Amino acid sequence: MNEVTAFWMLAAISVLGALIAVRKRNLVHGVFALLVFFVGLAGLFLLLLAEFIAVVQILVYAGAVGILILFAIMLTDRVTGRDAFRVTSRGSFWGALISLAVFLVILLPTIQDIPTIENPTPKETIVETSTVKQLGIHLIKPYIITIEILALLLTAALVGAVTAAQGGRASENEENNK
Amino acid sequence: MTLALHHCLILAAVLFCIGLLGAFSRRNAIVVLFSVEIMLNAANLNFIAFWRYGTNPELLHGPLFTLFTIAVAAAEVAVGLALVIAVYRHFRSVDLESLDTLKE
Amino acid sequence: MSVLGSGIFKGMAVTLKNFVGSYFDKERLTTNEYAWQANDKLPERAGDYPKEEAEQLSDTTTVTQYSRNFPMLLHDAGEPMDTVRCVACQICERECPPQCIYIEKSTEKKERSGNKAQFYPATFDIDVSVCMSCQICVEVCPFDAIVMNSQFELSTPSRFGELLLRRDDLLKSNDYYYKIHPEEASARDKRIADEKAAKEAKKKAAEAAKKKAAEAKSKSEAEAKAKEEAEAASKPTEPSDTPPAESTATPSTEPPATPTTEPEKEGSAE
Amino acid sequence: MTLDLIKDILLATVPLLIIFPTMFALTTWVERKALARIQNRIGPNKVGVPLTPYGGKLSLFGLGQPAADGIKMLFKENIVPTGADRLFHFLAPILSLIPSMLVLCFLPLDFPWLNGEQNSVKAFMLDGAVIFFFAITGLNTLAVFMAGWASRNKYSLLGGMRAIAQMVSYEIPLVLSAVVVVMIVGSLNADNIAKAQEGWNWFVFQPWGLAAFVIFFIGALAETNRSPFDLPEAESEIIAGYFTEYSGFKFALFFLGEYIAMFAISGLAVTLFLGAGAGPGVESLSWLKIFWFLTKVCILIGVMIWLRGTLPRLRVDQLMGFAWKFLLPLSILNIFVAGFAWHIKDANKETATSVVVWIASIIILYAAAKGLDRVNRAKVKPRTYQYGE
Question: Are both C176 and C200 inside the same structural domain?
């Protein structure tokens, strides 16, 4: 059980999760497959020694985004009955072709000149230098402006989401009143 | 054989293209939204891989950038889903093909 | 102005007192241990109870006279089907919210001891697995034929069939009713007696009024005398009418209407 | 090398897998007994240990009840509704158990006697244990939703949606109250947090710690669907919520998962506020740490049971209002109070200052709570009772 085996297992999990998520006709199944993908990716992050990122990945994606999407599905599709399962595709052929083309375009340079890193930084150094504390110090010192902007963005997103989701209802009410 | 950079890069490429396929070939707005999420996550994997195998890992560029991406993605999902709900309220559908009012 | 969250602590103190007290204070542990012995025979069907009914019901801590479980059919003293009060009117069947009562009316009327011929229930089933013990059947029954039993030993080894109580399981004597719900039974019987008395009194009063009215008509020429007599006629009828009107609980019976009609009659007589 | 690894894994996980399910079995019995006593009943008292195959038993106040329940659950018929999503219906109970079991590994419990005093094993030595705890507890929600959705039952779905809404709302005050401790200790590592509270320096003795502990405990009650926040499984409203359609062993798994989650979150509360393994005598005997830790967890569980016997269930709008309008502002204020108190104490180490800071912060927090309470109650008319006192 070495790193490579773990990598292939996690890779298989995440690729399968992603494939099912985009191809499954049943939306709720799709969301759970997406969650499998997120968790698999978190495992990969853990394998690559980015422990905190793995935690955040689970916390934000599996915890928050997944639930948000589930809520959106529950609010938009009829939960029971056939509508929830009737998700048809469009232009599957051209989509697949374009994706394949993009894949090759990305892949060719990777295969042609694999960036051979002679001696990657040893594990111990990375574990020592990438503690949560170090990450926090970096966030507060050189990236403080980014953090502030991000906070602003998140607040704006919060307000925007609330207005977007509620504005419809307000106008609907007005229509009903007319 | 040890884990190397190109493993992660190829995996990220595969995941990115799966996301792309989903975004191109599905009609449900929510599915398109989470296809975009898959693409973003593939990019995150690249960030982390480059940080792990690149030079100067002590600067933590990879994890920091990934953190920012995750935060932005979370905001994007929130707003995106709010828009989907608003669109659903208006058109009674989340089918992207049927939202063609501007064509007429 | 109270301290924030003090209500929660007050409640917790109450429950703590009950919890600790239940180990020392008999008053705080009212539940008795279930007296079923391991070697007791399991009941084959609902109605077979491990204890004799009398024995179970004498255990006043388990079954008080205020406990109600499922309905039963009342009959007066004597042969059950001969004195059953139910006339298969099917009101309870219609009113039952979960529709657990099934009644089949008999095809012909049957003579009953002490009563005139009536229909009787050929089938009267109550599915106690459906019954929700709401007591609405008891409320609507105009014949006081269905009341609540406090029998609770209903467990059976099968969930199909055995929980369907048949007519003969349901028939219980009025004495039994007195035994399990003494207060309610005596109140009910008093009411029935009062109603009967009121009916008879009303009948009598109506007859008397008719008689008096006829007399008043015949003596209408003597004006002064007639007035006096009409007043005298109204006085004795009133006290005999009003008490039954107060005692009756069922709204469908007639007595409440009588006092209002009485003066009209007098007026018309005048 | 591989053998050593397997040995280490077993040593780190097997005690957790023995202790907590045993505690689960005993807790179900204790809960039934305690609730019965609170309600003037006796509770289970018949099932005992059979002494001979032919009769005679040791009833021991019905201590055999958990075993009997377990056997009953195992052999019960497994019913899957016709319209149900069979795969998800099968997966949901398993998925609800996994996160609860997983987070037990993040508690600062190490078993020194198993591997010699010097190197005790731990399943996870993560730097961000506390945040990992919250991340994985959040996955529980998904299992609940899965169960509700897969059952194809309106009540189940309602229960699932209620569970999601409730857990997402209460996770915020929960995390924010834990942030206070993390901020003061300066580490997300559970062991470091435990180390910072050695002796009697428990955070619950600080005013901000007390406030955070109360908020955390309320959040924990809501997060584990305990009464008075058991809306997802409110029997009188939606049958049994998300596990209406579950029977037999799947139901037992849900039940186990719920109780293990209770232990886990109580364990986190103990770690964050109640000094983890700290207690008398831990310096000389290191296994006493585990004893004290588990004792504190049991006390918290006891309080949860006590509250369940006392408080009635909240309404959905009250539940949401309480999380967003009361707990959230209070926990944000608490972070500021803790920051200032810590800063002032750090700058000025005299006893008098710390007493003043202590009293001042308690007054601020209480006034804020009272004010929030009054603001939230302003629109509600005082209820008059027709028959009550």
Answer: no
List, for residues D184-225, the tens digit of each pLDDT value.
888 888 888 888 888 778 888 888 888 889 999 999 999 888
What residue spans define the domains of chain B?
27-95
Number of domains in chain D: 1
Tally of structural domains, chain C? 2
The pLDDT of residue A152 is 92
Q: Report CB contact under 8 Å: C12, D369.
A: no
Residue C168 located in a structural domain: yes
Check D141 against A131: CB less than 8 A apart.
no
Q: How many CB pairs under 8 A join C and D?
A: 43
The 3-state secondary structure of chain A, one letter per residue: CCHHHHHHHHHHHHHHHHHHHHHCCCHHHHHHHHHHHHHHHHHHHHHCCCHHHHHHHHHHHHHHHHHHHHHHHHHHCCCCCHHHHCCCECCHHHHHHHHHHHHHHHHHHHHHCCCCCCCCCCHHHHHHHCCHHHHHHHHHCCCHHHHHHHHHHHHHHHHHHHHHHHHHHHHHHHHHHC
Q: D189 vs chain A: nearest CA distance in angstroms?
A: 10
CATH of the domain at C173: 3.30.70.3270
With touching defined as 3 or more inter-chain CB pairs under 8 Å, the answer for chains C and A is no
Check D142 against A52: CB less than 8 A apart. Answer: no
* CATH architecture of the region A1-88: Up-down Bundle (1.20)
**What range defines the domain where residue D194 resides?**
79-377
Whether residue D338 is contained in a domain is answered as yes
Which of A 58-117 lie inside 8 A of D, CB atoms?
Answer: 58-59, 62-64, 66-67, 70-71, 74, 79-80
State the residue range of the domain holding C210.
187-269
Of C125, C146, C180, at which residue does a domain stop? Answer: C180
- Tell me the pLDDT of chain C averaged across its residues: 73
Task: Return the partners of chain A (3 or more C-beta pairs < 8 Å).
Answer: B, D
Q: How do residues C204-213 score in pLDDT, each as one tens digit?
A: 888 888 888 8
**What ipTM score was computed for the predicted complex, to two decimals?**
0.75
Count of CB contacts below 8 A, A vs B? 242
